[in-house]
Records
---
Amino acid sequence: MSELVRVVVDAMGGDYAPEEPVKGAVEALRENQSIFIYLAGKEDVIRRELKKYTYPEDRLKIVPASQVIETGEPPAAAIQKKKDSSLVAGLQMVRKGEADAFVSSGSTGAVLVGGQVIVRKIPGVERAPLAPLIPTERGVSLLIDCGANVDARPSHLLQFAAMGSIYMEYILGVKKPRVAIVNIGAEEEKGNALVKETFPLLKECRDIHFVGNIEARDIPKGKADVIVTEAFVGNVILKLYEGVASVLIHEVKKGMLSTLRSKIGALLVKPALKETLKSFDASEYGGAPLLGLRGLVVKTHGSAKAIEIRHSIHQCVQFQKQELNQKIQQYLRLSDR
Amino acid sequence: MSELVRVVVDAMGGDYAPEEPVKGAVEALRENQSIFIYLAGKEDVIRRELKKYTYPEDRLKIVPASQVIETGEPPAAAIQKKKDSSLVAGLQMVRKGEADAFVSSGSTGAVLVGGQVIVRKIPGVERAPLAPLIPTERGVSLLIDCGANVDARPSHLLQFAAMGSIYMEYILGVKKPRVAIVNIGAEEEKGNALVKETFPLLKECRDIHFVGNIEARDIPKGKADVIVTEAFVGNVILKLYEGVASVLIHEVKKGMLSTLRSKIGALLVKPALKETLKSFDASEYGGAPLLGLRGLVVKTHGSAKAIEIRHSIHQCVQFQKQELNQKIQQYLRLSDR
């Protein structure tokens, strides 16, 4: 029992709760013998969902929580007020060491604030960045930080670069991950004050494989594995990525259905295209970890389906088995600060 | 003759110079009787290109310039050193009032610096923003600022909002253009220090139709006509837009050619799809104006073909006929600062 990785899944968070979180949890449980799942939320609701499935019952437990934090609520106040919410209950379990990780599709703000306030940062970590994987032509890259803490300092970005490298190396298996900083040109002397100050610090850093600036147009080409930027820009990149892709795919579909001829073509093209677009779908890679906390917190999309929950749970297992937090702590001890 | 709009085209700038700039200039000349074109660059080279076409010769003149500013050169030094470049010669003509506008596909940095140093800002304009049109589901939006001046102040953003509104209203014919500021959430209290300071100022501004924050994912949906942001973020948005679109279109094409079945489908789908993707091609809308200068300077893509040059020239005519600079000056007089 002690070797099981214990993951709390927020059964009430996201647009498709409780169906999809419960389904994803059950699927992950079936796929991997070393997972123990806690489902946090309204007991009767979860029980009703669970009736749909057969699953190893000795590795799943319900954590009753009567409240739900809604997406619109101010995060800090909601966490303060709704002590019996699935989100707070789950994070508390990670804080107390009763669980190793927490996965939620609920309010991003509440997950971010809750992670920092309840689970708390590893001593020495200045900021806990939200680091989603984004699809590229060549696989995926880690975009770090996309969280809510804007106006970062160079020392924050330096830690993001290190934590991101560790993540890509041990969770995604990328050897010597290429780290780049988002800038508006490829030349070293370009950029705003923050980037200009951070660039030489990253260059000096011996623990990471820094490859210099990355222009936004090269991000989808997969020219770096770890893409370092402060949260405002990261957030813009993440959301624009989704926005452009969804509008473009919508337009392509519309174009294909505009004439009889193209409709016939669309039928023939569809299976091949589906495969292509799948590789550009972020949910295939699981949620975004909030790095640098004393336990793992993973934020999945608000619209996450079972597949994303499932992948996120497997990500938690990998995180735990690879002792990622110990590796981050080790880095902090080794670094000068 | 006095009513002709005089546009200098940089015949030596961009990846396809001199062929495409010359071609675009000739086409624009044929399409519109009220244009006078100056082609700046190496006389023999331009003369050779012009031999390919018949055109109204009384409305075209070559401005001999022996030097070319390359993309890699440090902008300020290049402008200082290469006084006889097509770029400097063209900008000088606008400065002296010998031409109304300058269009170039050459080095962005040199166009930006040259515009400010040679043509100079309208008195009262704090910064001259580069404002490209970006394609959306519903047409185009103006993204302002994508230039090289990072670390902006709230008063800069306020002027961008006003100049952008004037541009969209009088050049694109958008009545009461919706102005939004790029932010990481829709709520008023979100954002970094700059956005939080600028938001209430925009809200108070009676000359513009401010609609609040815009999240990056809503930009491709066309939820605002004028998208205000500081240059670093604007640059990231512009380049990511191009990057995601080009990678995705590439992947779609690759997907379509991956099986025999899909290849047949691709043939049937192609004509309809071409039309769709055309509407998502920024070059259809001409180049990016550098607003707030004493004359008009338009930067076209480095890879601009004749069509983009042509559209940019027509844009210059519109700019001049609508007396846009007078309108900007009028706004500056009316505003409190």
---
Amino acid sequence: MNKQVIMIDGNEATASVAHRLSEVIAIYPITPSSGMGEFADEWSSKGRPNLWGTVPLVIEMQSEGGAAGTVHGALQTGALTTTFTASQGLLLMIPNMYKIAGELTSAVFHVAARAIAAHALSIYGDHQDVMAVRQTGWALLSSGSVQEAHDFAAIAQMATFKARVPFLHFFDGFRTSHEVNKIFQLSDDELRSLIDNDLIREHRARALNPNKPVLRGSAQNPDVYFQMREAVNPYYTAVPGIAQAAMEKFAKVTGRHYKLFDYFGHPEAERVVVIMGSGGETAVETVKYLVAKGEKVGAVLVRLYRPFSLEHFIKALPKSVKSIAVLDRTKEPGASGEPLYLDVVNALVEGNRPGIKTIGGRYGLSSKEFTPGMVKAVLDELNKTAPKTHFTVGINDDVSHTSLNVDPTFIIEPEGVVSCVFFGLGADGTVGANKNSIKIIGEETDNFAQGYFYYDSKKSGTVTMSHLRFGPQPIRAPYLIELNQANFVACHQFSFLERVDMLKYAKTGGTFLLNSLYGPDEVWDHLPVEVQKDILEKKLKFYVINGYEVAEKTGMGGRMNTIMQTAFFAISGILPRDAAIAEIKKAIEKTYGKRGEAVVKRNFEAVDSTLENLCEVKVPVGITSKMTRRLPVPKEAPEFVQNVLGEIIGFKGDDIPVSAFPVDGTFPTGTTQWEKRNIALEIPVWDEKLCIQCGKCVIVCPHAVIRHKVYSDVALAGAPETFKHVPSKFKEFSAGYAYTVQVAPEDCTGCTLCIEACPVKDKTQVGRR
Amino acid sequence: MNKQVIMIDGNEATASVAHRLSEVIAIYPITPSSGMGEFADEWSSKGRPNLWGTVPLVIEMQSEGGAAGTVHGALQTGALTTTFTASQGLLLMIPNMYKIAGELTSAVFHVAARAIAAHALSIYGDHQDVMAVRQTGWALLSSGSVQEAHDFAAIAQMATFKARVPFLHFFDGFRTSHEVNKIFQLSDDELRSLIDNDLIREHRARALNPNKPVLRGSAQNPDVYFQMREAVNPYYTAVPGIAQAAMEKFAKVTGRHYKLFDYFGHPEAERVVVIMGSGGETAVETVKYLVAKGEKVGAVLVRLYRPFSLEHFIKALPKSVKSIAVLDRTKEPGASGEPLYLDVVNALVEGNRPGIKTIGGRYGLSSKEFTPGMVKAVLDELNKTAPKTHFTVGINDDVSHTSLNVDPTFIIEPEGVVSCVFFGLGADGTVGANKNSIKIIGEETDNFAQGYFYYDSKKSGTVTMSHLRFGPQPIRAPYLIELNQANFVACHQFSFLERVDMLKYAKTGGTFLLNSLYGPDEVWDHLPVEVQKDILEKKLKFYVINGYEVAEKTGMGGRMNTIMQTAFFAISGILPRDAAIAEIKKAIEKTYGKRGEAVVKRNFEAVDSTLENLCEVKVPVGITSKMTRRLPVPKEAPEFVQNVLGEIIGFKGDDIPVSAFPVDGTFPTGTTQWEKRNIALEIPVWDEKLCIQCGKCVIVCPHAVIRHKVYSDVALAGAPETFKHVPSKFKEFSAGYAYTVQVAPEDCTGCTLCIEACPVKDKTQVGRR
């Protein structure tokens, strides 16, 4: 390949173009768009210039409302200006968006599209936010992948300069913003050849300038406002043509072709889905798979959603189409249909395409998985005489019965793709190491590669999942690795075994790597029954490494990430062992270099010690364990905790039916008492002999794990012998009072803050880790 | 009539119900909804209780964002809570609206729907703001008249208590919010019988309460958010039935019947318009008129826009319908169609009503007039083989050619309606007096009555127009009095004659009342040619009164309002003269009572002196005047000033075609220099002998009318003899320097602030008024 290929996520892919094409960037962080602002801020702080040699001014405001105002103001000075946002952040920009559009100002917003807080907040991706601004007069351009986010960032800018209508460029929050994929990078020279400097000059000439004053932002009365609101019509009529021309110029420069409405599938398709965003990739790949099997199906990907070009849409649709399913990644309660569905219904009426049966449905709210099986379920529905409309897909709606049945065994993964799932603990470094791994694979081998990382919004201390795929063809699978599909499963925390069903992801004949306190000879008996069963039934190769020990010995403390990463490369053999180790060390230097030589050295040692400690387990032939996996919550927990919260804790939230949930986001309180995460490998132990009863450990514990109490000796009657207590040292409660510090082991995360806080010198005694 | 009838505007009609049904009212003023907040604030400050005997807490916040947050918070405590807003104010409430709806919280917002600032701000009415929140999950209930605003304020509250879905009740800003009309008032007892206290108890029981804690406002992940977002579906499905039931219960109590979609017209109509808001009244009245003439036409009024009930809509539509025109009072540039249009297209598809030709159009943006002639133009368009779609009506769109032609002579005013137009100067009291007049007519006679008041947003010092109608039938005409339709035209400012074409409103045989400096014998020759011509051609009865003189003599200063009001009653004879005078005096006491007895007494004197000073003019047979009406701007003005700003100044803005306007709201500066309003009756005169050259008059003049200059004597060479100047008193510029104060008479408003500021004692000499 001549072109530079890089492994980056959607946020960086977008910011890379936006930063090079901007002079002013007004930001306010909101998940999942924060990455774009952070990259831009970092690059500007390091003096990285834009395409014209000046360093973009990055301004963080007090809110997204302020950021939008700054954008509007900067645009009026003629500056090339952008912002990055999502969700409520975008909602706060609405008033300014009307103004920017009404004044026909060339501008681009980049949005990592996200759900909106209704019954509950969600930081995850869907199109509720961008749909909430579709009336503002902005063009809406949708990217469906990391490559498209990179490319459309440029195309949006090309088009807005020509059209004067501002562009909102969006892609799916998390699914695209946080997916790492291998893309062709737009070079500065390519960007330069795409952007027309004459149009920038015209943009500048329209600026407010005291030397050439004009009035903008007037107040108008009934006599003239309406006429002026209609005066912009020709500009909107021109946008589709301008956007298509930009895409064609882009194709000439880069070889990557896009259309306003891109049709994929059978040339004489009878059943077609219409879709926008990352789900479009899934739809296209599924359609290709089905067409190869002889089905007459197709998919229309919507790139330019606003202005909606009736003409281009009708042209994209094969003449043979008999039925259409429109998929909206949004929900507007009370609407007669979701937005894209209504547009398609109208396009068929106005475009004079009668007799096409059209249904609409919702999918993927808040990054709900959208899989090939779901695409197939939708296409299957179109085969029915009376297909459901206003359906949902991806959930079990046992209340309004909107949901379609999905076949979980329908898999379209192409030959040669290697899928790997890694389970880590939030903040244990697993995600970071896996990001490095997939970048190494993507950039140092001929493989295409994809990484997606799932973290609970509890962040630190909960399970993280890293989904890595690589193979000889571009990875177009914007969904998690499906059940029974992973060639490689790694468990970076031994304690997960008893509560997370990890091996459901493993393929028959796959590999399981376990970070184990127990060696290859003794580990088997320490596995729960379910794990033994899966290993046997799926004929898994089973490796262990005592990452805890290696980490401790090499001074890495609790961080096993480098060790597990090395083990992964050693087992998988993607790269020759030496090359892999060299790349891991390069990544370590890049990641930890700024923390000093000692840290880098410790990591290097950990890498080197890994190989000698990695062992394959000879899997016995039979199930020996008596231990079963723990219930997520105990049986004594209230019904709602068992049926809803317990299922969520047990990673089965996706399966909970609609009927199980409160209708208005109201939950019972005090339910965390039932979630015993039991994640600490070592817990503090109270040394009653040394304790000065200062209570600092109680105060600093972030999880309220340590409690202390002064109480009358009388209460000790009948206490078990092992119950520790000492006489109270408190002046007010001395004679006849006892004192106890009690630790709740299952709630402890092992963070060691209590030990840091303890003022007694002999720390090895006071609170041994 | 048994029921209490009152003359109030839409804001008061709404606030009257909202205040009685609320415990917390969070407000932030924004035109045209401010009236609702002001009424509520005033009533609470006076201790007026709600229906349950407690005084609503009215809280003014720092912005509408804060008001929405306050509403959300108060609702969560179980308080009955509301707010009033419009336009950008409503936009700032969007994030909270999603939350309030997502949590299924019974609440009502009252919105005086208004345009949104795009190329320019506008405080006037349309549906852009409510359409910008149609995706938030709120029910949207539309009132089309003052009576409906009153009634639907109650129906919205009834429905939200039952449905738990929050209701946004809206009506057209200015057109309904500021129209005074005669309505049946809902008594406390009626309201009590409408509201179900058990439902309020349930609302309270759902409150956040530390004694019975629940968790609300959680953060959710991809596993469960989607399911919970769908859990509300049954609540939305139920809303239409609940709203219709509320309307039926309301009808039982009040006798006033409403439906979700109200059909009016021929039972076998072939052409139908679908419309929402005040334009619906115009559509219905026009349809009735045309049906009476034998046309098969009809109108569907949309009351409950969200949730959109497909079933109710289809049921409302006669089976005979062949074509439909959907009228949207909004514009969403780039959309494939406006919102209501898309809903109707989809309803016909899903409701299986094929073969109905459907077109959509925009009307009435920013309170653009929407008249019976426009309704007829739309219905006529449906008669064509290839009717325009995405049309506009009410403007001349010579750019995109979207506009329909309208016949200005199509008038449907029923027999017996008396129409009166009054021209006053902003802040001269004309509007206030006319409000009193129409209230007197509506409340003290059997007449139905309507008052609508148009003021420029320049407010003080510009032309105000009062449009009053009354007659034996309810006045359902939410548009200005049309050309040649006014039975009575009054000009309260003599100087308007030379720049405003007022008599174009006058009906043949109507009456013209002029506040004139000249008596009945001399006035004729002081009228411009155009005025003489109109009086003669239209055979107008012509009255004059020297209101200026009467005002000065009775100590009223510049305020002629009471005098002109008295003259109106005297001439029109609506009430017996004595009764009219008694009512006017009652109104004076009510309006000015708080300013003290002296003010009331002066007004009484003015009333009494009016009758003896009011004279009918014997209209001569011929045109005698050589004076023509002034051009709004001089011929030397730049082209744009002549063609656009001049037309606006000359009250012909409605006729300016789209092509004349800038596309992006950009105007040239320095154009006020061309608008010579010439409205001061008396101007300051510089007394160079007394002047101490302090310059205070220059500083205080709010219109920059007074300039002073120190200059070299040399510059005086060739100055006209009348050019006033004195030696400069400035130390730095003494010998050889002159000083002049110059007044620009045409720009002066006669406000007298310069005289107030002048420190020289002998005020009668320094700056005589």
